[in-house]
Design goal:
Strand content of chain A: 5-15%
Distance between the termini of chain A: 30 Å
Strand order of the largest sheet of chain A: 1-2
Mean pLDDT of chain A: 90
Largest interface: A-B, 54 and 54 residues
Order of helices and strands of chain A: HHHHEEH
CATH superfamily of chain A: Winged helix-like DNA-binding domain superfamily/Winged helix DNA-binding domain
Structural class of chain A: mainly alpha
Number of domains of chain A: 1
Oligomer: homodimer
Number of strands of chain A: 2
CATH architecture of chain A: Orthogonal Bundle
Helix content of chain A: 55-70%
Largest sheet of chain A: 2 strands, antiparallel
CATH topology of chain A: Arc Repressor Mutant, subunit A
Chain lengths: 110, 110
DNA sequence: ATCTTTAATCGTATTATTGCGATTAAATAG
DNA sequence: CTATTTAATCGCAATAATACGATTAAAGAT
């Protein structure tokens, strides 16, 4: 998006788009699913799970972190990542609200 | 994403990411919300609602159409867009399934 | 203190997305 | 048939995202 257009949209629209964009890459979906599956903190072995270099995975992790979906805590020489439960609840609320909006739509047209 | 890596991910991961990516722009969120709000088919006046040129809006509409979120039917000289209800239900199911996966995660860690 | 291990960051190449003016295509109106 | 209206497509410039090797930083181990 053009930076000069960012203020043309409603805050919640920017927020939703930002979130969706963070989910808009299969590697990041895979990371989230992995974190959910192991149901425990997981460190650098995320790299093993993906067909990507360490630097690239680190970049994807940062994007997920920036948008609040995951958090990482340093544990010795490695870092433990997991889904940020508190934020995740808020994010889910936001998404569900959007979904309900769309549900109301267009029962009678086209 | 590198094209050669696409087959490294599970089908549902690619699908989810594709979907999320389509939602990952405020203009496309705005379009969907507008279509939902007017609760009726709406034609080219979507362009009026957005701070974008006609060509750009048309492009965003195509992306939403490609992923199945909306459909457009020609009506005379204009085109009538609305949320594709049937697909939207399926998409919502897919997303909710993903959400439930994440919900199970990480109650006890970090 | 030096060596390892682990993950973040930097620099950079490649590719994809965004945005728009101009053009085209299709339907309708006159 | 010739305008007009509406929306898609083309071509292109600008920007952003993706990926990776190399380097750096921080913690632990020896």
């Amino acid at each position: 998006m053009k930076a000069s257009n960012a203020n043309q949209y409603a805050g919640h629209q920017l927020q939703l788009a930002r979130l969706a964009k963070a989910l808009g890459h299969p590697a990041r979906i895979a990371i989230l699913e992995h974190l959910a599956r192991v149901n425990a903190c997981v460190c650098g072995d995320i790299v093993e799970e993906l067909p990507l270099a360490q630097a690239t995975v680190s970049q994807h992790l940062r994007e997920l972190k920036e948008v609040g979906l995951i958090k990482g805590t340093v544990e010795g020489t490695s870092v433990c990542y997991c889904i940020d439960e508190e934020n995740w609840k808020a994010i889910k609320d936001q998404l569900n609200k959007f979904f309900r909006e769309l549900d109301k739509a267009c029962d009678n047209c086209c």
